[in-house]
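ok here's Crp/Fnr family transcriptional regulator:
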Amino acid sequence: MSTDLILKSIGKYIGLTDEEREYFLSLLHPKELTRKQFLLKEFEVCKYSAFVNSGCLRGYTVDENGLEHVMNFAPAGWWIADMYSLLSQKPGTLNIDAIEPTEILLLSKVKQELLYHEVPKFERFFRIITENSLVAYQQRLMDNLSLPAEERYNNFCRRYPTLIHQLPKKDIAAYIGVTPEFFSRMMAKLLRAEK
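and the structure:
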């Protein structure tokens, strides 16, 4: 499995020596997921952060009525984990599965702590990633509380431009917080407005 994408991602924030790069890569565990295969199920303890090398993962919860609520997507070049569970090492609430065949690189919590000790600049990298994630979650929460569905869809398109035509419509609907039927009507209305 290629490591070019993860090294390019890290290189945006920190510079690594050849030795540091090799040490980091030695801590990663490659894994391939088939479509709909779970990386994590709710009530499990999250032991890894996952970097998506190719394909796409989604993180979601299921409510008491069986409705899915998509929290986030992780296309190629993105990290994903159940942050609450990873940091607390308590059972989580997030399901993470593959939308399509997906290659990931896993970094365990234990090895991440080793990495911080051996290459301290990685603390900066993961702090930046975590801060960016926190800002995105807060903005998403504010959007869901205050914006109409069409605006939430536009924000989805800006956040995940490569996924607009790649994802099942039901997943986009679950992300913006509407039913698939409402989403279909909204998209038909938007298409009519464009003509």
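+1. The longest strand covers residues 68-75.
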